[in-house]
UniProtKB/TrEMBL annotation, chain A:
This is Ubiquinone biosynthesis protein UbiV. Its cofactor is [4Fe-4S] cluster. Forms a heterodimer with UbiU. Belongs to the peptidase U32 family. UbiV subfamily. It holds the Pfam family Peptidase_U32. Required for O(2)-independent ubiquinone (coenzyme Q) biosynthesis. Together with UbiU, is essential for the C6-hydroxylation reaction in the oxygen-independent ubiquinone biosynthesis pathway. The gene is ubiV. It comes from Shewanella inventionis. HAMAP family: UbiV. Keywords: 4Fe-4S, Iron, Iron-sulfur, Metal-binding, Ubiquinone biosynthesis.
UniProtKB/TrEMBL annotation, chain B:
It comes from the Bacteria. This is Ubiquinone biosynthesis protein UbiU. The gene is ubiU. Keywords: 4Fe-4S, Hydrolase, Iron, Iron-sulfur, Metal-binding, Protease, Ubiquinone biosynthesis. Pathway: Cofactor biosynthesis; ubiquinone biosynthesis. Required for O(2)-independent ubiquinone (coenzyme Q) biosynthesis. Together with UbiV, is essential for the C6-hydroxylation reaction in the oxygen-independent ubiquinone biosynthesis pathway.
């Protein structure tokens, strides 16, 4: 199993993004996804900027995949999508069926991201025929669900990736919730979402953290944390364990995990898990529970 | 322009037909559809009755199979497809790739409508489903503005159906995990959003509260109305803020009566009324109004104006009594 770094879901300044990927370049992380996946109004980085970063990371030996938008509505967004697909070098992560369609047409191998509805083996096999070489499990699915997808007569001919750490993408809307919060019309939003480098936290009236507003995307308030499940996932045949980054320090976590996996030092994982677990984390989906739930016992049981 | 109405049971089906629905959509009594509520939906026998009844009146009936087959249990979904074919139903409303493939391979003459749960919002996605499974129609998610609907209709390789009235999903349907994040059950997997067995209405004397799996969704004073607790329509407190607000959406419902001319001119094939979980009285009331509105438009397209009595009749059955154009109106976004 390898550690992968998912795309940055937030609107960061160009210099912050560049600083982030410079640090990634010097890490031991194997696989890096990058690109804007949430909102086409975010133009801090142009496609050419992402392509330059992709080439820089490639020159440092990284496997680079260009991530594309989850919600594609306007013709201009389709144009951007096909531009990413026809980059001439890198594979793409399709996060909408339009990505699947155009990648298949262009014969560009693709990863199906977590917002493509892949709930069973027959659907995955069908997408594999269209050029999908890896899929990221939709975040609401569980270990048992994934096991049932894997447990058929034939071994999957595609790779499996699971979101192991980070805030989960729960929903996408036409409405920009960040702009709405600041009483700005979406069409003149000033990319106000840039104010919140890990989304805007929303709590219930009983101060329970619930959601994270990230433009048109709604994320979980809690970070999914499946560090302790890594040995289980290796046994199941999961190929990639994704970190969805929200801060520079996530690179260090990805790096640490990469080094442990490279040296097969699974016993050290327990300590990394303890160091990197907060009381506000969650692991419910993986355990077949409400996604927001956190069951520390289940974590311990996997060692 | 077809008027497509919901039916959660035979009484609702009859109500829809009597009130002038051109077509009715319904689901089986299991987790093959995303309105899997206790006491709702059709057994195989009832489905046969419903189909016979609709066909005897020259109307159409569609079977909704819009959840995603669970690994190891796929047979249940395949059997639902076979049943619809056997009964000569007029179309299947399907979201899952493997199920579209199964239906296309085994019953090529049974028309396929792409469910809103497949979340196809653009030409690329529609082309994919058309070319792979020869879908005849797609139901558009409630995320497009009226201009985007119009633009898409111009180039779409398939007929388009849009939501005209009912509860308002504000997320791209089929890709929303808010319900499962809080309750463990989602429309995609378990068959419902915010399942009733997780809902609690509380009265603290001064306040009324609604909870979903114990999470406080909304709180109001005793005399105020509270909507059914869904995560996207709760009142929450944003970081750096003091007051609780409807950060995503307030309890409103969709009403597009005023858009009838624009939808018709765009060439939209079908107007869908939401609400398989609602009562026969709701179905009857809403179908009557929409029948009247569509007929009024068709009789004199250039003179169409929304009539006050329609809106009044619809307001009575609308959630929270407030209606919106939702994403059709760019300003809402």
């Amino acid at each position: 199993m390898k550690i992968s770094l998912g795309p940055i879901s937030y609107c960061w300044s160009k210099s912050d993004v560049e600083t982030f990927y410079q640090a990634v370049a010097t890490s031991n992380i194997d696989t890096v996804y990058l690109g804007e996946t949430v909102c086409s109004r975010r133009r801090e980085l142009k496609f050419s900027d992402y392509l330059a970063l992709a080439n820089m990371l490639k020159s440092h030996g990284k496997q680079v995949i260009l991530s594309t938008m989850a919600l594609v509505e306007a013709q201009s967004e389709l144009h951007e999508l096909t531009r990413a697909i026809n980059n001439g070098d890198f594979c793409i992560e399709a996060n909408d069926m339009a990505g699947v369609y155009y990648a298949h047409q262009a014969k560009v191998p693709f990863v199906c991201g977590p917002t493509i509805n892949n709930y069973n083996r027959a659907s995955l096999d069908l997408l594999h025929q269209k050029g999908m070489f890896r899929f990221v499990m939709p975040c609401e699915l569980s270990k048992d669900w994934l096991q049932a997808v894997i447990n058929t007569d034939t071994k999957p001919s595609f790779e499996i990736e699971v979101l192991g750490h980070g805030y989960m993408p729960l929903a996408h809307s036409a409405r920009c919730f960040t702009a709405k919060h600041y009483q700005l019309p979406k069409d003149s939003c000033q990319t106000i979402c840039q104010r919140h480098s890990k989304g805007l936290l929303a709590q219930t009236q009983e101060s329970q953290p619930l959601l994270r507003l990230n433009g048109i995307q709604t994320q979980s308030a809690a970070q999914v944390n499946l560090i302790n499940q890594i040995p289980t996932m290796i046994n199941m045949g999961v190929d990639y364990w994704r970190i969805s980054p929200n801060k520079l320090a996530d690179i260090a976590l990805a790096d640490t995990l990469t080094n442990l996996l490279n040296k097969a030092q699974f016993n050290d994982l327990a300590q990394v898990a303890i160091t990197n677990t907060q009381s506000k984390d969650c692991n419910g989906y993986w355990l077949g529970l409400p996604g927001m739930d956190y069951n520390p016992q289940a974590n311990n049981a996997s060692f | 322009m077809e008027l497509l109405c919901p039916a959660g049971n035979l009484a609702s089906l009859k109500a829809a037909l009597n009130a002038g629905a051109d077509a009715v959509y319904l689901g089986l009594k299991d987790d093959t559809n995303a309105r899997s509520f206790a006491g709702l939906n059709f057994s195989a026998e009832q489905l046969a009755q419903a189909t016979t009844l609709a066909h005897s009146q020259g109307r159409k009936v569609f079977l909704t199979i819009n959840t995603f087959p669970k690994p190891g249990h796929e047979q249940r979904w395949y059997q639902a497809v076979d049943l619809a074919a056997k009964l000569n139903m007029d179309a299947l409303i399907v979201a899952d790739l493997s199920l579209l493939n199964y239906a296309h391979q085994h019953h090529p003459h049974l028309p396929l409508h792409l469910s809103v749960q497949a979340s196809a919002t653009n030409l690329g996605a529609l082309s994919f489903y058309k070319e792979a499974f020869n879908i005849e129609r797609a139901v558009l998610p409630r995320v497009l503005s009226i201009k985007q609907v119009r633009d898409l209709a111009k180039v779409s390789p398939v007929d388009l159906e849009v939501f005209a009235f009912g509860s308002l999903c504000i997320m791209a349907e089929g890709r929303c995990h808010l319900s499962s994040y809080v309750t463990g059950q989602s429309p995609n997997t378990g068959g419902s959003c915010s399942p009733a067995n997780h809902v609690r209405w509380q009265d603290s004397g001064t306040d009324k509260l609604t909870r979903l799996n114990n999470v406080l969704i909304d709180k109001a004073q005793a005399h105020q109305q509270l909507g059914y607790p869904v995560v996207c329509k709760g009142r929450y407190v944003a970081q750096y803020d003091q007051d609780a607000k409807y950060l995503l959406e307030s309890p409103t419902s969709l009403n597009t009566l005023s858009l009838i001319p624009q939808l018709a001119q765009a060439g939209i094939a079908s107007l869908k009324i939401e609400g398989r979980q609602r009562s026969p009285a709701y179905v009857s009331q809403v179908t009557q109004v929409w029948r009247s509105a569509i007929d009024t438009y068709l009789a004199a397209p250039n003179e169409f104006a929304e009539q006050a009595q329609w809106s009044q009749a619809l307001a009575k059955v609308s959630e929270g009594q407030i209606t919106t154009l939702g994403a059709y109106e760019r300003q809402w976004q």
